[in-house]
């Protein structure tokens, strides 16, 4: 299958998804207006009295409309999703990641809008056709499948980790019509998620399916796909892009787990929580799943927005600092906030204190643990994003052991390897300046390619291939510069925090 037919299929699916999503959102808004606006309801009643089956269907659905505040929040998230879809399409520039995320945003705008789902009753009454199941498969399944495939392809739009890999070589060598086997690692998860989500949404309430698939499944799949790309990307920029989105996924998944624990603790303690009215499940009482549902909708938009930021060509290093610090702050806020809610509920349950005193006691407990928690979370985030690094003493000891005098002089190539491995770098180069002579550069590269291992070159560090992807620092003895050391930028990004 060539790229052009794939692009045609994509635009057809996007058009079909838009046709399902936008009219449903508009009809759901009309149902909400008929439920909460007297003028609109009178106009719909008059139309129904005139024999309009559509007006009669709107009146039926209005009896199961969302509360006004919930409907406004619902449509706010749908509007953000559609706006982000437009931005992604205009910024796609041929990127399949942006295209698929745009498709996911259009689908999720209608898929998880509870009021829009309530409009299916109006359609069934008007045309006598039950299309609720088709609506669920098209919007829920396509949105989740597109999202998962986009995360699997991020950031390059290709299923590969490093240049020269078997996958890349096969893709380049195979003719266009024979690339389908190479795409199977991406197509199979996409097809599986399409079937699983389509069936799951037909069996589960819409709120539960949103929480399970977009709250838990999508971030979890993204974390599994991007973990290796954060350390094995082909270039430092690609590794940085992977870390940017990886940090957003960690924040989303960590937050949803904490919110789930809070929800279960409150249910166990029989304490009131934020409830959600699901008009797609008539007769069911309001469930205390509002925190999980609204955060799932927010995280779907936030992760796609993070992917958009990560694919920008400039400002990656600044963005990574912001994302890493933001991840630590988000996790601390969620843990402290969730701890406050749980401690307050426990105090209220055990001691029956007045609300004000229970809140003060919970605040004191959480304030004591804030600073130690923040320090631990910072360490956890740094290790998660950049891996564990040895102590400076360990690095110096390794360098001293390797750089001792030998028959052929100092083993500086081994020194470059020791420093590179200690920093978790993919390459490290050490240049010795020789006045009146050509500089000597000793380098080491990880991997399985021809350039892997320790080597020696004639020339300065900046003249060698790949120098643009390295961060170089001078080595001085007093005021005189005697050499330079360079490592790939991805190895030192965590040290600038």
Keywords:
497 residues; alpha+beta; 5-stranded antiparallel sheet; 18 helices; 5 strands; 7% strand; flat
Q: Low-confidence parts, pLDDT < 50 over ≥5 residues? A: 161-182
Assign an overall shape. Answer: flat
Strand order of the largest sheet: 3-2-1-5-4
N/C terminus separation: 46 Å
Helical stretch count?
18
Hey, roughly how much beta strand do the residues contain?
Answer: 5-15%
Rg from alpha-carbon coordinates: 28 Å
Instruction: Write down the overall mean pLDDT.
Output: 77
The description of the largest β-sheet is: 5 strands, antiparallel
Would you give an account of this structure?
The protein is an alpha+beta fold and 497 residues long. It contains 18 helices and five strands. α8 packs parallel to α11. Mean pLDDT is 77; it is low at 161-182.
In short:
This protein has 497 residues and is α+β, with helices and mostly antiparallel strands. It is built from 18 helices and 5 strands.
What's the helix and strand layout?
Layout: H1 3-36, H2 38-49, H3 53-62, H4 68-90, H5 96-111, H6 114-118, H7 120-127, H8 132-153, H9 166-173, H10 180-203, H11 206-226, H12 229-232, H13 236-269, H14 290-310, H15 316-351, H16 355-386, H17 392-402, H18 412-423, E1 427-432, E2 440-445, E3 453-458, E4 470-477, E5 480-488
Antiparallel strand pairs: 1-2, 1-5, 2-3, 4-5
Helix pairs in contact: 1-2, 1-3, 1-5, 1-8, 2-3, 3-7, 4-5, 4-14, 5-8, 5-14, 8-10, 8-11, 11-13, 11-14, 13-14, 13-15, 15-16, 17-18
């Amino acid at each position: 299958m060539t790229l052009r037919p794939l692009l045609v299929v994509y635009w057809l699916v996007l058009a079909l998804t838009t046709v399902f999503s936008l009219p449903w959102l508009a009809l759901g808004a009309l149902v909400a207006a008929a439920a909460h606006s007297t003028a609109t309801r009178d106009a719909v009643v008059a139309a129904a009295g005139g024999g309009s089956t559509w007006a009669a269907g709107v009146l039926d659905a209005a009896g199961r409309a969302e509360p006004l505040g919930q409907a406004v929040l619902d449509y706010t998230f749908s509007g953000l999703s559609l706006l982000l879809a437009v931005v992604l399409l205009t910024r796609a520039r041929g990127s399949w990641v942006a295209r698929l995320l745009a498709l996911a945003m259009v689908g999720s705008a209608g898929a998880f809008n509870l009021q829009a789902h309530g409009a299916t009753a109006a359609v069934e009454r008007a045309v006598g056709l039950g299309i609720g199941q088709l609506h669920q498969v098209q919007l829920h399944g396509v949105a989740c499948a597109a999202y998962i495939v986009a995360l699997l392809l991020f950031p390059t739009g290709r299923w590969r980790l490093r240049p020269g890999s078997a996958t890349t070589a096969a893709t380049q060598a195979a003719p266009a019509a024979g690339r389908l086997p190479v795409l199977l690692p991406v197509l199979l998860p996409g097809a599986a998620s399409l079937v699983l989500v389509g069936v799951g949404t037909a069996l589960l309430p819409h709120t539960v399916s949103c929480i399970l698939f977009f709250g838990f499944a999508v971030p979890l799949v993204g974390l599994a796909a991007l973990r290796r790309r954060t350390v094995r990307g082909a270039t430092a920029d690609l590794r940085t892009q992977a870390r940017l989105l990886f940090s957003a996924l960690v924040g989303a998944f960590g937050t949803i787990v904490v919110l789930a624990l809070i929800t279960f603790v409150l249910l166990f303690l029989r304490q009131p929580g934020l409830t959600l009215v699901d008009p797609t499940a008539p007769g069911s009482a309001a469930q205390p799943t509002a925190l999980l549902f609204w955060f799932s909708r927010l995280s779907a938009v936030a992760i796609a927005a993070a992917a958009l930021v990560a694919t920008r060509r400039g400002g990656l290093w600044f963005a990574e600092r912001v994302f890493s610090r933001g991840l630590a702050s988000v996790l601390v806020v969620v843990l402290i906030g969730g701890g406050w809610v749980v401690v307050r509920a426990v105090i209220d349950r055990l001691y029956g204190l007045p609300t004000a005193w229970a809140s003060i006691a919970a605040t004191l407990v959480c304030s004591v643990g804030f600073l130690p928690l923040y320090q631990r979370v910072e360490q956890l985030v740094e290790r998660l994003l950049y891996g564990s690094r040895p102590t400076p003493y360990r690095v110096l000891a390794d360098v001293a052991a390797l750089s001792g005098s030998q028959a052929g002089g100092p083993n500086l190539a081994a020194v470059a390897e020791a420093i590179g491995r200690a920093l978790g770098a993919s390459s490290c180069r050490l240049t010795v300046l020789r006045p009146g002579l050509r500089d000597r550069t000793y380098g080491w590269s990880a991997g399985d390619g021809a350039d892997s291992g320790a080597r020696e070159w004639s020339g300065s560090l900046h003249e060698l291939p790949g120098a643009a992807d390295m961060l170089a620092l001078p080595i001085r003895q007093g005021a005189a510069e005697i050499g330079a050391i360079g490592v790939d930028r991805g190895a030192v990004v965590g040290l600038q925090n």
